[in-house]
Design a protein that fits this description.
The protein has about 425 residues and is α+β, with helices and mostly antiparallel strands. It is about 40% helix and about 15% strand. Strands 1-5-6-4-3-2 form a six-stranded mixed beta sheet, sandwiched between helices. A hairpin with a 5-residue loop joins β3 and β4. α7 runs antiparallel to α16, α9 packs parallel to α13 and α12 crosses α13. The N and C termini lie far apart (about 55 Å). It binds adenosine-5'-diphosphate and magnesium ion.
Length: about 425
């Protein structure tokens, strides 16, 4: 540990914190909207090459180094790290809390504090901290509109953690408690997003197909950029899709003007970010296969299906007092056996592999659930002991979803398909 507690380091994040004071203004969305049109243009010109590629340089760590551990400053002046004032709690996850903070210059940020283990402080890609830094440095900075950006971070040997707040609000008490005794804390300072896709869906009295589809195109475009550079977000769901308000009416996606309806879609939460370069080469055959099936388009399909069921969930949550969204996402209810047979056949056809043999395909269960929920949507809803059945929204047909599953590894093709298909 001695070598961890060094005085200072030339960390890449220094430059990012510098750039923050330059680029982040009172509303971070404003600052990013400027650079964004550029980034959209830049990437659309690249778009003709649809294969997955990354430059050799990307494979290097760019001398990236995790910052040293410092003593947690109990902040005599009420400021965190002599700089940030906590304004309010925004949200919490399993391991941490997200706050709204403001710096000396009144720039606002999202401040996420999490417990981490000693393992995270190693300067190689076994560390999820280093993986995230790599992503923020190499990709997020280049596409400030499409991905949340990191402006500053610190690692401390203690922190101001309000575990009671998390415990009070979580469904997973044991998992939360498992993190409680970890020795270190990481403090991330991000640009603010205005809301998440979940917040937007909750705020709608009725489902707005056109707006939803336009936002889906932005989401697909972001998935395409990740894939283009060899990254997988790996944790896409409606709470990890951020929305940043913009006054720009249109954005350019593959040379098409797409209405923003006032929002840029910005991906957040890179705790599970993945890239081939993070893995060493002696993977066995099975893990290679699992790796092959990692695809953010699986998260995309999941987001579509959950959204189709959103009105149903809202209704059922009220009458039966359950967190339906969690159930729709967590392979619930169990699929009847005779249906499973039909579903596996369909899945084998779409993925062009024999599902019953590929039991180690990590996402089989996930996709089975999705197919069950769209093919047998009445039965699925009736299993919740209700007479209230919603016809699924027609913003995306089952055939469209099949198309995505068929092309899980080609986000470009899927993006082109929906760019043509959606009438916006
Ligand atoms: N940059 C941000 N601006 C505003 N809210 C945020 C930001 N990042 C996260 N949040 C809020 O906090 C929640 C949890 O953050 P997230 O990074 O997804 O943590 P977890 O790993 O716990 O899911 C998000 O779903 C979102 O509501
Ligand atoms: Mg999250």
């Amino acid at each position: 540990m001695g070598n961890i507690l060094k005085k200072s380091s030339k960390s890449s994040s220094k430059s990012s914190s510098k750039s923050s004071s330059k680029s982040s203004s009172k509303s971070s969305s404003k600052s990013s909207s400027k650079s964004s049109s550029k980034s959209f243009l830049k990437s659309s010109s690249k778009s003709s090459s649809k294969s997955l590629f990354f430059k050799k340089n990307d494979l290097l760590t760019n001398n990236m180094k995790i910052k040293d551990v410092i003593n947690y400053d109990k902040s005599e002046n009420g400021l965190l790290f002599n700089k940030y004032k906590i304004l309010k709690t925004i949200s919490h996850g399993l391991h941490g809390i997200v706050y709204l903070v403001e710096d000396n210059h009144k720039n606002k940020y999202a401040y996420k504090v999490e417990k981490i283990s000693e393992k995270e402080l190693i300067n190689n890609y076994d560390s999820s901290v280093l993986r995230q830094l790599d992503f923020f440095e190499n990709i997020a900075k280049k596409y400030p509109n499409n991905f949340m950006n990191l402006y500053d971070y610190y690692i401390t040997n203690d922190c101001n953690f309000d575990y009671n707040y998390i415990l009070k609000n979580t469904f997973h008490k044991n998992k939360v408690l498992a993190y409680k005794n970890l020795p270190y804390c990481i403090h991330y300072f991000y640009n603010l997003i205005d809301s998440t896709l979940l917040d937007l869906l909750k705020s709608w009295k009725y489902f707005k197909n056109k707006i939803f589809n336009a936002l889906l195109l932005q989401l697909l475009y972001n998935i395409y950029i990740l894939n283009l550079h060899g990254y997988t977000h790996h944790d896409l769901h409606i709470e990890n899709v951020g929305l940043v308000k913009t006054t720009e009416k249109y954005i350019n996606i593959l040379n098409k003007e797409i209405p923003t309806y006032g929002y840029y879609v910005q991906l957040i939460d890179f705790g599970k970010i993945d890239h081939n370069k993070y893995h060493n080469n002696n993977l066995n055959k099975n893990s290679l296969l699992i790796k092959k099936y990692k695809s953010d388009l699986i998260g995309f399909v999941y987001i579509v299906v959950v959204s189709k069921y959103f009105n149903f969930c809202k209704k059922i949550e009220k009458t039966q007092n359950v967190n339906m969204l969690k159930k729709v996402s967590k392979s619930y209810p169990p699929i009847p056996l005779h249906k499973l047979f039909i579903i596996n056949n369909k899945l084998s056809e779409l993925l062009n592999l024999n599902i019953s043999k590929n039991y180690y395909f990590k996402y089989t269960k996930y996709l089975q659930t999705i197919l069950y929920q769209i093919l047998y949507y009445k039965e699925f809803q009736q299993s919740f002991d209700t007479n209230y059945i919603v016809q699924l929204n027609d913003f995306m047909s089952n055939d469209d979803i099949f198309f995505v599953i068929k092309n899980l590894y080609d986000p470009y093709k899927v993006l082109e398909y929906f760019l043509q298909k959606f009438k916006l």
